[in-house]
Amino acid sequence: MATMSLNELDDDIVRSMSVGAVFSDFGGRINSVDFHRKDDLLVTASEDDSVRLYDIASAKLLKTTYHKKNGADRICFTHHPSSVICSSKYNLDSTGGFIIFLLLPESLRYLSMYDNRCLRYFKGHKERVVSLCMSPINDSFMSGSLDHSVRIWDLRVNSCQGILRLRGRPTVAYDQQGLVFAVAMEGGAIKLFDSRSYDKGPFDTFLVGGDTAEVCDIKFSNDGKSMLLTTTSNNIYVLDAYGGEKRCGFSLEPSPNATIEATLTPDGQYVVSGDVLEQPHRHPIMLEMGSSSGYVRCCIHCSYVLDTQWHKICCGASSCGY
Questions:
Q1: What is the Cα–Cα distance from 205 to 192, expressed in whole angstroms?
Q2: Which residue has the higher pLDDT, 277 or 105?
Q3: What pairs with residue 238 in β-bridges?
Q4: Sheet holding 215-220, edge to edge
Q5: Does position 309 have pLDDT exceeding 80, yes or no?
Q6: Nearest to residue 30, comparing CAs of 17, 49, 13, 11?
Q7: Global confidence as pTM
């Protein structure tokens, strides 16, 4: 984790970045991480079925909860700093032919980190949730599952508020204003929806030409002008969010047993990506827009880097494997 307080990055700042704190108090791999939008908090979900809450200003672990029944896979903050949404790893049966709502698997849980309590279960998905995001403006959130559906939820009610049936592995993301959301589907298609009238269908569709790999992560830039895509073949693309034109692309080494997630810096000038190469090349990579070269940070991980996130303008976080 590297700390800084500048609005814009340059190559010298990137090269000078160093480790601010290392958290290694978990077992196995970190499945996902998320920053709170306003507070200096980080939450992680790990393979040891734990959810951990960190204060990134003081670099302290605040809370650990274990979820042995359902596991902890994808995770994201709600608007409240001590509440998160977590997807399940276990007890997801896609072959049972469920017809009664009560028998559907508890694929998503609304958790209170303050008192280690499940506030609500969300049932509907029949397979693993692979994409999860919270609306920046209200209590809505979205989930994409390997059951080929995207579901739209409201934290205040148990039932699903909307369903999109898609081909392939769906990936979802809201823009920073919460007015538009993007859904990636089979064949490199990116569909844009108005979050207020998504039932009318997408208002635009982009195609990532020449790459048929599934998109495993989407992020919008802070100014809403760019979309960052990471594919299952470890290709990274930056698209114009208005017209869909490809601004730049990067190809990393393939990782058959894991997918990586890249992120944009707050100024939108650099892409931060994981690295799956063997030692001694285990580190996040900073890629400059419009350039095919990577700027290697000084913070070295003990294993391959899978997930990278950025918090406002002050801090970056990355998770590594074993």
A1: 6
A2: 105
A3: 228, 248
A4: 215-220, 226-231, 235-240, 246-251
A5: no
A6: 49
A7: 0.86
Which amino acid does the sequence have at 67? Answer: H
Query: How far apart are alpha carbons 52 and 64 in whole angstroms?
Result: 5
Of 212, 230, 135, 139, the C-alpha closest to 176 is: 135
The C-alpha atoms of residue 12 and residue 69 are separated, in whole angstroms, by: 47
- Are 105 and 96 a contacting pair, CB within 8 Å? no
pLDDT in tens, 177-213: 999 999 998 878 899 999 999 999 999 998 886 677 8
In angstroms, the Cα distances linking 280 to 21, 284, 300 are 20, 12, 9
Q: Is 186 left (phi over 0), alpha (psi -120 to 50) or beta?
A: beta
Nearest alpha-carbon partner for 227 in 180, 187, 195, 186 = 180
H/E stretch holding 12 reads helix 11-16
Nearest to 125 by CA among 166, 156, 179: 166
Q: Output DSSP code: residue 261.
A: B
What does the alpha-carbon distance between residue 169 and residue 96 come to, in Å, rounded to a whole number? Answer: 21
46 contacts 29 by C-beta, under 8 angstroms: yes
Give the number of other Cβ atoms within 10 Å of residue 66's Cβ: 13
* 109/226 Cα distance (integer angstroms): 31
pLDDT in tens, 142-152: 999 999 999 99
* Cβ contact 160:150 at 8 Å: no
Strand, helix or coil for residue 53: strand
Is the CB of residue 208 less than 8 Å from the CB of residue 229? yes
Q: Which residues contact 125 (CB under 8 A, 6 or more apart)?
A: 92, 105, 107, 108, 143, 145, 147, 149, 151
Residue 277 CB neighbours (<10 A)? 14
Task: Please give the Cα distance from 289 to 306 (Å, whole number).
Answer: 21
